[in-house]
Amino acid sequence: MNSAQSQYDYLQPKHLLVGVTGGIAAYKTAELIRLLIKQGHTVQVVMTEAATHFITPTTLQALSGNPVFVDSWDARIANGMPHIELSRPADAILVAPASADFIAKLAHGFANDLLSTLCLARECPLLVAPAMNKQMWENASTQRNIAQLLKDQVTILGPDSGEQACGEVGQGRMLEPDMLIEGVQAHLTPKLLADKKILITAGATMEMLDPVRGITNISSGKMGFALAKVATQMGAEVTLVYGHATASRPQVRHAYYAGTAHDMYQSVMQHIADQEVFIGVAAVADYSPLVSSDQKIKKSEQTLTIELKKNKDILADVASLPNPPYCVGFAAETERVLEYARQKRLDKKIPLIVANRANLALGSDNNSVILIDATGDYPLDTADKTTIAAKILTHLKHQLN
User: Fold this and answer.
1) Which residues are catalytic, by number?
2) Which InterPro entries does the record match to this protein (predicted)?
3) Are the C-beta atoms of 230 and 269 separated by less than 8 Å?
4) Which of 43, 135, 222, 331 has its Cβ near the most Cβ atoms within 10 Å?
5) Residue 82's pLDDT is what?
6) Residue 358 maps to which CATH number?
7) Residue 344 known to bind ligand
8) What is the pTM for the complete model shown?
9) Is 38 labelled a binding residue?
């Protein structure tokens, strides 16, 4: 991998300006700021006067660790130009919640308070998370304003649909904080894989012995799901074939459940034809029962013998296709990790393999891996699996080039 750390600059924490306008959804902004800080970002909060009726500046100051600004004439900004001083350091501005009134201001270029003024004076991307009653959202004027913001290259995050504070049900709810975090990350992530078609397998397979018992492993699906999420953020068209998992499945273009090794093999082969990249992360069972009982196997003897048959090797078969995609494999080993992973890459005839220690990676939120390709070994420091996924995909991008 190129020694220059600059290829990972986009993974560095950002300075985000969070704008808060008047709406009951402002209570969610407290959790949004907490999550942003937890990810290492620095957060500067600017509120409208209406927002202070829903949540206090003191609360958001405590969570962000920075003073909160409301007034354009705040004397804490020495040169009297807070709209310039606050917006210039920001890597992005996120207005959450964004009321119908504030969206109208943005659409028509009004600048009659601190938040609207700095949005107009910004030199960074603007993201807006609408939050309002469903009739207000559906109103023709609001839709015209949203269309204008999109035309002005403002990113709109949401809204969601569901029960609203007023008791009605419909579209207009602000996205939940974790979804807003994903939206911000997707916006800040370079589109390194724009228009690439990538098929990813994730999770564990379950080979059934009878209707209530099966052979499986402790894969959580977190690594495969992280790769699918980050690849989507990088602009790829992702097809996800997933088995049993404890992690939450990300939103991707195409997703197919495959609970057994046979089902996963069939699903992969059905969708592999036009894929440019195949990443086999799923912990697929090497063996399955030769015979699976239709009824629960009753306990009768001290021992039970189960005859197993070898399952098809998905990664090897994809790599051996007449016109194979670029194949990435995973090697989860408990000993001699590098040796076994290097040999696995050669045996399966694939360009890139990701090696890790199974006992440390399976089920964990973090991972430490070594990327192995024809040019050498590239260790990645221990990090959360989303960060590891981003670094794997960045390396993949360079290999594709």
Assistant:
1) 166
2) CoaB-like_sf, CoaBC, DNA/pantothenate-metab_flavo_C, Flavin_trans-like, Flavoprotein
3) no
4) 222
5) 67
6) 3.40.50.10300
7) yes
8) 0.82
9) no
